[in-house]
Amino acid sequence: MIDPDNTFTRHLTSGNFLAGLAVGAVATFVLTNPAVQRAIFRTAAKSADLVRSGVAEARERFHDAEAEIHMESEAGSETS
Prior knowledge:
Structural class: mainly alpha
Number of strands: 0
Low-confidence stretches: none
Mean pLDDT: 86
Shape: elongated
Order of helices and strands: HHH
Largest sheet: none
């Protein structure tokens, strides 16, 4: 039987201890399992590639908009 007045056993059954235990177990599994590490790094690389592609597309759209504005301003100054 667990003594409710014993602070040690109260801390062992607290939510913080159990959450820390779970986080430690997951961290140990990830750090020691090569297959999990490979999957995490592959996912990170794919995500980084997706972000780079998105940035390149946004840059291209920005340059297209600049070119349109430049062409419109040149066309407006020619007709005046």
